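quick one, four chains, predict together pls
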Amino acid sequence: MQDALRKFKSNIFQALSHPTRIAIVEMLRDGELPAGVIIERLGIEQANASQHLAVLRAKQIVFNRKEGQQVFYAVRDPLLFDVLDIMRRYFHAHLSESMRMLNDLDAGDSKKEEVDVE
Amino acid sequence: MQDALRKFKSNIFQALSHPTRIAIVEMLRDGELPAGVIIERLGIEQANASQHLAVLRAKQIVFNRKEGQQVFYAVRDPLLFDVLDIMRRYFHAHLSESMRMLNDLDAGDSKKEEVDVE
DNA sequence: AGGATATATTAGATTTTACGAATATACGAA
DNA sequence: TTCGTATATTCGTAAAATCTAATATATCCT
């Protein structure tokens, strides 16, 4: 049954369905990084970052290697970067609607963030 | 800021983070289909299917066209199929671990489903 | 052993998501 | 206009995700 395949896909997507986790994966594009660096660059609570790393680990999107008291993370398969690249193209291909969508989704929030292009 | 880009990506992934919605998108690979057919093939509650369609609509993954009393759905950009194709390759590339992962995630459920390959 | 550093895990509150049941809307037919 | 079909929306509830604060674990250094 290809039900398993769909479940698998949705699981991976679920793992990628948070901006912080996208940021982590993108951060690892050029190779492994210790958790400390990741956390520092994210600029969020240590515990929170660690939880996001745990999600990526659970879905096997990243793996880690312990060296001394540091833990180095790396993306398991660069195939995922291809997915992110396609998404970037997708975003640009529909730029105006994409931005409108982001604003719509934010609507109701107290602070309205500016949407700039990369 | 490419913060917007990351937010956009995670939004799309969020929309794809459910097996039913993956099924819908895949179902539309060869072109548009009326909601009725989609619902019938999914074999789930009409309301539930309609809700999933609403999610895909909100994220602009699909668009719809009304004809008479039917509503035809289509995927906005075939780029998404490329993403799904990559995920299939990803799945196969790590077949054994993928299946173990699916089982692990199911662990604790009352009924244990068999994991078959597509 | 004891303290400092790096990272992970747990707990609890809040928000978001998913689902079924019921209801609403839009349209075509009689 | 009333009826039936196709689809969407709302409501209530259960489950899952997210965040902060607190605590735990492992490793190195002295």
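Residues 34-36, 39, 46-47, 49-51, 53-54, 68-71 of chain B lie near DNA strand D (CB under 10 Å from a C1').
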